[in-house]
Amino acid sequence: MIELRxxxxxxxxxxxxxxxxxxxASTVADLIAELxxxxxxxxxxxxxxxxxxxxxxxxxxxxxxxxSGAKEVAFFPPMTGG
Amino acid sequence: xxxxVQPERFDMGAELNRFSAAQDGAGAIVSFSGIVRDVASGDLxxxxxxxxxxxxxxxxxxxxxEAIARFSLSDAFILHRFGKLAANEPIMMVLTAARHRxxxxxxxxxxxxxxxxxxxxxxxxxxxxxxxxxVDAKDVDEVALKRWxx
Lengths: 82, 150
Known about the structure:
The complex is a heterodimer. Chain A is an alpha+beta fold. Helices cover 27% and strands 26% of the residues of chain A. Chain A contains three helices and five strands; from the N terminus they run βαβααβββ. Chain A has helices spanning 8-14, 28-36, 40-45, and strands at residues 2-6, 18-21, 53-56, 59-61, 72-76. Chain A starts with a strand and ends in a 6-residue tail after the last strand. The mean pLDDT of chain A is 97. Chain B has four helices and eight strands. Chain B has helices at 12-21, 55-70, 101-118, 139-146; strands spanning 2-6, 28-35, 44-51, 75-81, 83-85, 90-98, 121-127, 132-134. In chain B, the strands form two sheets. A four-stranded mixed beta sheet of chain B has the order 1-4-6-2, sandwiched between helices. In chain B, strand 7 and strand 8 (132-134) form a beta hairpin. Chain B starts with a strand and ends with a helix. The mean pLDDT of chain B is 96. The interface between A and B is medium-sized, with 16 and 25 residues.
């Protein structure tokens, strides 16, 4: 089981900020494909991959990054700090 | 180096004075503050800033350490707020100290460019009419970031 976290409009579209999830996925992109197949909310949230950023164990990664052994994977839109 | 992530307002002058008093041998201190801007229609009710507790502190510490190493800063300070903010309130502050001004200025610019698009904060603008819009990331911020990747 891994902890999934969602932020900003991804959180709103998915409908939750975090959840525990059992996955067979080996990369972030595989995980996105799995989640998108769950229901319309997830499919909508992940429909534009260009607007998705991800972090594995709180480090920013590319979408092809592996998730094996990860405790936490987070998804969010491009950041707007400062 | 000090990193602070907080919902509370802060006093820019007090932070600058405290930081300055702690320096020894720095010939230059640069201060930058970001302020909540009103929306184009002039009816911003509140700006809500969401962040990723844990990753935020980790990302800021990494960016800060990189700035210190790259620009030979003697010290750096990053403060960023989250939660509900009103127009004209300070959002964040960056302070850098170095022996000479060019490194202090560059260090502060580097920190700001990274903070804009690599620290996990998201802004949402809510107007008095009740419209709520997530602020889009800007292409110019990515361009600004690229100039440091040499």
